[in-house]
Each structure stands twice: as structure tokens, then as C-alpha cells.
Amino acid sequence: MRCWAIIPAAGSGSRLGADRPKQYLSLHGATVLFHTLSFFLADSRFSQVLVALAADDQLFRHSDAAALPVQTVVGGDTRHASVLAALRALQGRAEDHDWVFVHDAARPLLLASDLQQLFTTLKDAETENFAGAILAVPVADTLKRVANDGTIEATVDRQGLWRAMTPQVFRFQALLTALISSESRAIAVTDEASAMEAAGHTVRIVRGRDDNIKITQGQDLMIAEQIFAWQRQ
Ligand code: CTP
Ligand code: MG
């Protein structure tokens, strides 16, 4: 049984609104993508690291990440399609029961301790009958359901609510089948777990670190710089 890493990096970073997709912005002297790929390449448990790039990507081959021993695949218009493209590139090489870790290119602050927690949880997958696991953190803020006119309709009980992060790890064949099924049923999936849930699989939550942020908007890159320095103190 082997492990594979898929890094979807075909997004445009529209919410951040920089002059290039956020995975090509610089974090502590290297691109965000370089940090993310290097993290997985440094772990010998992964047989291969695959990165999904936009069809019109002009930046990868000129970036520091181009020197890394990864396999590139052409991604799609959605994150879902990008992950599916990478899974299809594994067909014929990956066994049904291999584990596939999917991790956002835009989360360069993942630490080995979080990855280790996922690996530890997977040891129980067979006996406890779950199909995979994801990192997540409990919701800390009070949640409001808001009407279109900006008024509060309800306060949502946050008990039992978690924010999904990545990595998200599943068996190769189960994930491939679930993502194809979601695509054909036009189910919108923003993470792999939602496709697995829709396919009827049980997915485990692993409590992750709050500093595994996804660079998404505004000051996130600046915050990421601070976290990066703090993690290495
Ligand atoms: N992603 C991808 N293919 C897409 C869209 C997103 O591979 N068609 C990747 C992004 O590159 C990112 C991860 O999925 O690493 C998480 O997506 P998100 O944070 O939404 O990134 P973007 O889609 O680039 O940003 P935005 O939604 O603000 O445009
Ligand atoms: Mg997006």
C-alpha cells in the first residue's frame, strides 16, 4: 500500500487579487507553491507528488517550483476538476487501496505533526470502518444566518461545527469514484470529503492546527509570513 500527494494549484486567486495566482507569490524568499511541494517531497512515505496547474499557466516553468521532482498535470476550471485530473493521471499506477492525500497549494504552513496525526488515524481505518480523514478545527466564532437585506435571521449553534482544512486523505479508488459521481450528479463539492460524504462514506475528523491557514484574501500572505517565522522560532 502506497501514499500519493496531490496538490491542486490551478486556481487564479481571485479573492486575493494579486498580480498573479497566490501560489506564485513569495513567502519567506520562495513561492508559496515551492513551500507546499517541498513539504511533501521531504516525506519519504509519498511515492509521488502530483501538482495540478492551470491549462494556461505561464508561471510554473519559470518559478523555483519547476526544479522540484514533481509530476505536473493540467487541472480544470474547478478545484474538483483539478483533483480529478490528478487522480486520473494516477490510474494504472495507484492501487485501489493506496492512500491519496490532497492538499491545497495555498496552505504552505502545514506542519509534520499534523500530517503525522493523519497517518496515525489511518491505522484504524480498517478496523473502525472509515474511508479517510481530514484535518479540521472547531469553529471559534459565533455564527449568524443572515438575510439578503443584511439582517440576522438566526444565531446558528456552533456546537459540533468544524472548519474543514487539508490535507484530506482517502483511498485512491473510493475518491476517484466519489469525485466522478459528484461530477455527473452536478453536486458542488468544495473539498474531497463532501464528495465522499455524498457517496455514503464515513469520514473522520482530525483536529488540526489553527496556523495551517489557506492564503485566501487580503492580509493572509502577511499573516502567513508571521506564522512562518513563529513556527521556526
Ligand atoms: N484550485 C485548483 N483548480 C481550480 C481552482 C482552485 O487547483 N480550478 C486550487 C487552488 O490553486 C488552491 C486550492 O485549489 O491551491 C484551494 O482553492 P482556493 O483557495 O479557492 O484558490 P483559488 O481558486 O485560486 O482562489 P479564489 O477562489 O479566490 O479564486
Ligand atoms: Mg477558488
UniProtKB/TrEMBL annotation:
Pathway: Isoprenoid biosynthesis; isopentenyl diphosphate biosynthesis via DXP pathway; isopentenyl diphosphate from 1-deoxy-D-xylulose 5-phosphate: step 2/6. It catalyses: 2-C-methyl-D-erythritol 4-phosphate + CTP + H(+) = 4-CDP-2-C-methyl-D-erythritol + diphosphate. The record marks 15, 22 as: Transition state stabilizer. The record marks 158, 214 as: Positions MEP for the nucleophilic attack. GO terms for biological process: isopentenyl diphosphate biosynthetic process, methylerythritol 4-phosphate pathway. The keyword Nucleotidyltransferase applies. GO terms for molecular function: 2-C-methyl-D-erythritol 4-phosphate cytidylyltransferase activity. It is an enzyme of class 2 (transferase). Gene3D superfamilies: Spore Coat Polysaccharide Biosynthesis Protein SpsA, Chain A (3.90.550.10). Its EC number is 2.7.7.60. The keyword Transport does not apply. Belongs to the IspD/TarI cytidylyltransferase family. IspD subfamily. PANTHER family: 2-C-METHYL-D-ERYTHRITOL 4-PHOSPHATE CYTIDYLYLTRANSFERASE, CHLOROPLASTIC. Catalyzes the formation of 4-diphosphocytidyl-2-C-methyl-D-erythritol from CTP and 2-C-methyl-D-erythritol 4-phosphate (MEP). This is 2-C-methyl-D-erythritol 4-phosphate cytidylyltransferase. It comes from Permianibacter aggregans.
